[in-house]
Write a structure and sequence with these properties.
47 residues, single chain, flat
Length: 47
């Protein structure tokens, strides 16, 4: 599955969150803590 970053936000505690949209199905969205994207067991960068 391929995801595209569509936005960034910061919560009241200063934690950054990333809004992702599934490529091929733009109705499918996820919001994740930016720190999760640093975990290579969770996601793989595709250039």
């Amino acid at each position: 599955m391929l995801w595209e970053v569509v936005g960034l936000s910061e919560d009241a505690l200063g934690n950054t969150h990333v809004r992702l949209r599934q490529v091929g199905d733009p109705r499918t969205l996820k919001t994740l803590a930016a720190s999760v994207l640093d975990d290579p067991s969770q996601f793989q960068l595709v250039a």
